[in-house]
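Quick check before the chapter quiz. The format below is the same one you will see on the exam, so make sure you can read both the input and the output lines.
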Amino acid sequence: MADHYETLGVSREATPEEIKKAYRRLARELHPDVNPGADASEKFKSVTHAYDVLSDPQQRQQYDLGPQAGFGGQNFGGFGDIFETFFGGGGAGGGRSGPRSRSERGQDALIRVEVDLEEIVFGTQRDLEVDTAVLCETCNGTCCAPGTQPQTCDICRGTGQIQRAVRSLLGNVMTSSPCGTCRGYGTVIPNPCPTCSGQGRVRARRSIPVDIPAGVDTGLRLQMPSQGEVGPAGGPNGDLYLEIKVRHHDIYSRNGDDLLATLEVQMTDAILGTTTTLKTLDGDVTVDIKPGTQSAEVITVKDRGITRLRGGGRGDLKIGVQVMTPTKLSHKEQDLVKQLAKARKAHAPSLSQFQQGLFEKLRDRFLNI
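Here is the expected output.
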């Protein structure tokens, strides 16, 4: 790595004015408008970088001292420096060794996915469109413009740390802090990638195929490892989490792996019995209504519920019966009902123990079957 003083052609004791004059002289000779050659362009960049460092008093001081400031400085640290040194602040042997990596793991992402009840009976597949961070195709995560690469930091000499000596009640101690020029990376990127601005990743929309297993329920989270956003400088992807929400169904509801529904039965069918075909979530099913069926009775159709999330098999379809009493009868129908009542010699209405409503009965029977 070329010495900045040699690049500008000045001594290490040069004054700021001498450094400025040297830079102006070289800049006039090497500027691309005057000297378009490739070698001159590279020399112009080196001269400009050297001037940027040496013209700043703080950076020049750090450059002259190198990564370690030695014990000759006049800095007097307080208790904060002492605690930082001895309790994880980066003193000799106490901090992270070497520069930190630009490459970091990407963040996890959470997406809420709505599915229909029909889809969770057997599971489904989705292609999710997500806005996320993806690897920059121009630099492939290097953060540098094509044909360039990171350069070792002049201030910390690639260590990523600046050490300085401080005097304390315990004597002279060394403290270490991240280099302010390279931010602890040990390298700088003089020519960032123009596509990602030196980040190694860009925002983009991508499609992710997702398998949603059967039996999922609202609130369940599915983890998809390494499907989250890519990390800075091409770091590994985070994870993607899918939070499931099952949409409301107009007919069917769910109790565990069972499906619940209500079947309205006419009074005559409940009395005489009948057979009917019902459309379920995965095809037709034939149901027998036995003669004398009462409201709140439950008809169970085996293995027509939801496929179990863990383990094999399916739940059941449970159908609660609600006998519909007609409210409007023709004269002929009234006469027929009267004849039926007379033939049965039914008892007059009388009080009995309180009975809970239909829906409460159905709930209890659904849960207890």
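If your answer matched, good. The chain is about 25% helix and 25% strand.
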